[in-house]
Queue: 3 jobs
Job 1
Amino acid sequence: MLLFELIQAINMGVDVSTEPISKLMCLLPVRNGGHILRRYFDSVRTFCSGVIALDDGSTDDTRSVLAAEGMVKALLINQPRPSYRGWNDSTNRQRLLDACEDFSPQWVIWIDADEIIPATDIPLLRRFLDTEANPALAYGFEVLRMIGDENHYDKNKLWGYRMFAYRQGYTLPRRTLHFEPVPVQIDRCAWKRTRLRIAHFGSLTATMRRARYAKYREADPNRQWQSSYSELLDKPGHIWDLCPLAEGTKIVIE
C-alpha cells in the first residue's frame, strides 16, 4: 500500500488488511514490463491468492522477474521477438484463462502490469466479493489515467470489464486487440459497472504517452483494430486527486 493511501485509509477508518482474497486469481499478460512489476506485485499480493502470468516475448528481464516472484503460480512463455508486431492479445488472454483450470479459482481478475487497484478500494473489493458479487455477472472497473505521480489522474469514466467468476470452458472474443476480456458465454446484459477503480500508469508522463502510442502503431500498423491512436498522446486535462470513495458508496452502478 502506498504511504499516501495508507494515511488516507487510516484517517477514514478503512480496514487496511493485506490478507489475500481466497480464490481470486489475477491474470497478467505482459511484455517488457520488468521495470514496473515490483509496484504491480506490491499491489496484487494484498488482495489476490495468486497470479497466472504470460511473458509475451519480452527482451528485458520480465521473464526472470516473473519466475522469481512467489505470487506467480504459473508462468506461460512466448518466444522473444524484437517488436510488438505479432502481438495477439486474444490468444494470450485465452491461454491465461485456460491455465486457470489447474487452480479452480472462484473469481478471476485482469490487472495489467501498468495498473493497480487503489489501496483504499481493496477493502471495498473484499466486501463486495464476500457479500454482493453475483457469479452470473461480469464486473467493470473505472479506469483512471494517472498523471505525474501515483496520486493524481485526469481521465476517468472509462469502464474496463475485468472480473468474473471462473468456469471451465470459457472462451474470449477472437479479436487480436482492443476487446473486453469477458467470456462470450456471459451475455452483454450481464455486464455491470462498479465504483471500484483501476489506476492506469501507462500515460504518466509525456515520454510514456509517446512510447504507448508507438507500441500500438507497431502492433497495429494498418489500424485494423482501431481507427486512430492519437488520443494516446492527449495532454493532461484537469487533474484530480485520487481520494478514497465515500463511506457507504454503493459498489454496483444501476
Job 2
Amino acid sequence: MSDMSYLSAAGLSSVGSPTLWAVTIAGVLALLVLDFLVTRRPHEVSMKEALGWSAFYVALPLAFGAWVWARFGSQQGVEYLTGYLVEKSLSVDNLFVFMLLLAAFAVPTVLAQRVLLFGITGALVLRAVFIALGAAALQTLDFAFLLFAIILILTAVKLLRDALSGHEQEVDISKMRSVRLLRKIMPVTNEYHGTRMVIREHGRRTLTPLALVVVAVLATDVVFAVDSVPAVYGITEDPYLVFATNAFALLGLRALYFVLHAALSRLVHLSYGLAFILAFIGVKLGLHWAHGIWTGVPEIPTLVSLGVIIGVLLVVTLTSLRATRRTGPGEREVVTDRT
C-alpha cells in the first residue's frame, strides 16, 4: 500500500502529493542555503535588514496559505493558517530561550545570526522526525490523539506553574548536560574564533565556545519539538500541512530575533497565553478522540480554534505591554537543566 493510500485508510488524507512534498522540501532547503550564504560573512544585523527579511518570511507563508486555500479549499486553508499561527507563537517562546543562551555564552553580535541559523536548522530536522513519528502514531494507535492531548495539557500545566511561581532564572550553562558532556570529550577555548567551531591549539583539536552554544541551542530544540508537533496535529491531521506550518514558522526566526530582541523581554504574559493555547488544543484533541468513540461528543471547529488563538495572543500582548509600561521589562522563568 502506498503512503498516500495508507494515510487515507487511516483517516489522515494529505493534500501533499509526492511531487508537492518534493517541491516543498527543495524550497525549504533552498531557503536554508540562502540564509547560510547571507550569514557566511559575520556582521551586525541592521534593523533595516532584519525588517526586510522578516517581511519576506511573513509574506511567503501567507502567500502559501492563500495558495492552499485556493487549491484545496477553505477547510485546508483555515487549518494551515491556524496551525501556522500556533507554531509561530510557540517559535517566539523558542526565540526567547535562544536569546538567553546567546547572552549566557556571551556570543558576539556578529555571530548571533549564525548561531540562530544552526538552531533553526536543527529544529527543522527534529520536527520533521517528530512529524513522521506523529503520523505513524496516528495511523497505528487508536489512542494517539488522547496521548497528544495529555502531552499538551501537561505542558500547559508546567508553563502555567512556572509563570505563576514568579522565580527569575537565568541560563546556567555549567548545569546543562549537553555542555558538560561536550567539555568532557574535548577541550574548549576561552575565546571565539569567528564562525569556526573547531580549531587546532597546542597541537590538539579544540572546540570553540561557538560549538558549545550551537549544541546547547540544538538540545533545547528537542524540548520544543515535543511540544509543538502535537500542538499542530491538534489543528490538522494532514502531515504535509503540519510540516509546512513548522517550516514556515521556523524559517523566519533568524531575522525576527533582531526585530523582536528588545520587545521579547516585554512579553511577560506570553507564558500564560501559550499555556492556555496548549491546554485548549489539548482539550480539542481529547474531544476529537472521544468523538471517534462516542459520536455524541462535540468537536471544536478549526475556525473557532483560530478565533480563540488570535484572541488569546492579542490579550496577552496588550496586557504584557501595559504591565511593562508601568513596571519595566520583566524576566520569564526558563528551565534549561534538561539539556
Job 3
Amino acid sequence: MGDAIRWLLAALPLLWALAAIGWRKMSAMNAALGCYALAVGFALFPFHASAGEIMHFTMYGVLLALIVVYVLVFGLLLHHVLEAGGAIRTLSAWLSYFGRTKSQQALLVSAALGPFLEAVSGFGLAVVITAPLYTALGFPARKAMTLALLTQSAVPWGALAIGTVINAELSGVPLRELGEYSAWLHIPLYLFYACAVVVISGGWRSIRTHLGDIVIVFVSLALVTWAVSAYVSVELAGAAAGGTAALVLIGYWQCQAYFGRRKEEAEEREERQPLGKVLWPYLVLIGYIFITHFFPEVRHIATTVGVWHWPAYGFRLELLYSPGFALCLAVIVAFGLYRLRLNEGVACIRKTLKQAFPAAVATTGFIAMSSVMDGSGMMGVLATQAAAWTESAFLAVSPLVGALGGWTSGSNSAANAMFSPFQRAMADQLHEPVIWYAAAQNVAASNMTMASPARIALVASTVGRPGEEGEAMRLVGPIAGAALVIIVLGVLIGRATVGM
C-alpha cells in the first residue's frame, strides 16, 4: 500500500472529527464514538494491530480520560453549589463593577484570570470555572463558550507547567531554556488573544476603545511570563503572569474610577454583597493546590496516600494530589458556607451528573481514539510522512506536528509525550538545535488544545448546551488556526535570527 494512502487512512479519524462536529453539527459524544470506531478499524487494517493491543491502547486512553473526568465532575458540582448559594450572582456583580463593559469583563476573565486558573490547576479547569461566569454576566452561549475556551491561551504553563517539564525531559533540553524559548514564542500570542477576546466580546470597534486595557494585559503577561520563566521558575510563570495581569488591570480601572468617579458608582458599591464569602471556596481550591505542590511534606502525603496505580498501563492517579480533590474540598466548604439544604444538594448532584455524562463520554472517546492512533502507529505515519514531504524545511512543519497532538488529545502533556521524541530525532537528523523543535512542539500543542474536541465538549456541557459543539468549533477553530500561523512564523524568524 502506498505511503500516501496510508497517510490518508491514518488521517481519516481526525478528518471525521472535524466534519462531524464542525460541518454536520453532530454532538461531541456521537462524534467521539464514531472517531474511535474509525481509529479501531484502521488500526486493525492496514496498520495490523492485534485485538489485544487495541484493547490495551483503549484501556490506557480510558484511564487517562478519568483524570480529566475527575476534574470535570467536581468542577461542575462546584458551579452548581455556588449557583444555588447565590455566589455566582454576587461574583458576576463584582466583575461587572470592575469591568464596566463586556470587553473589560472578558479581558479580566479570559485574558488574565484564565491563565492564572489554568496555571494553578490545569486539565481545562479554567473552562469549567469561567464559562458559568460568562452566562451569569449575560453573554450569549456562543460567546460564553468561545471566551471560556480562550482561557486556554497559556497552557505551556498550565498545571504548573507539567507538560513543559515532560517536553524538557523527553527532548533533552534544560527546563529553564525551554521555558524561556516558549515564552518568546508566546509573546505575540498574548497580544493576539487579548485582541481576539475584545473583538468577540464587543466587536471590532472595541479594539480602539479598549486599546489601553489590551496593552496592559499584553505587557503584564508577556513580561512576567518571560522574566519568571528565565530567572525564577518555569512552573510558577503562568500563575505569576495571570495573577499580575489581573491585579494590574483592576488597579488601572480603579485609578480611572477614582479620578472620574460618578455618584451612581458609589451607590452600586453599597448595594453589592461582600466578596469575601464568595471567594472562600476559590481560595480553598487554589490554596490546596499550592500547598500540595510546594510543601514537600504535604506533597509526599498527597502523592502516596489514596493513589490508584495500574503498572500494566503505566497509569497513576493521585487522588489527593489532583485538582479534582481540591475541587471536592471547595464543594464541601461552599456547601457549609452557604448552608444549603439536603434537597438543594441532591438537586446540584443531579444537574452535575446530567451535564457531566455527555462530556465524559466525549472526552473518553477522543482520548481513547488518540491512544489507539498513537499505539498502532497511525500518529507516527502522519508525522513521518510530513517529515518526508518537507525534508530540510521540516522546522516549518514542526509546530503542525505539535498541534496535531494537542488537538487530538486535548492535553499538552499527552501531546508532548506523543511527539517530543520524534521532534528531537528530526532535529538531530537535520543537524539543527533541538530547542527550536522542542519549543515549537510545546507552544503549538498547548495552543491547539483550546480547539480540541475534548475541550469543546467540556465547555458545551458546562454552559448546558450539549449538541452545540459545532458552533464552538467554528468560532474557536479559526482563532486557533491563526495562532498556529503566528507560531510557525515565530519559529522561523527566531531560528533565522539566532542563526545569523
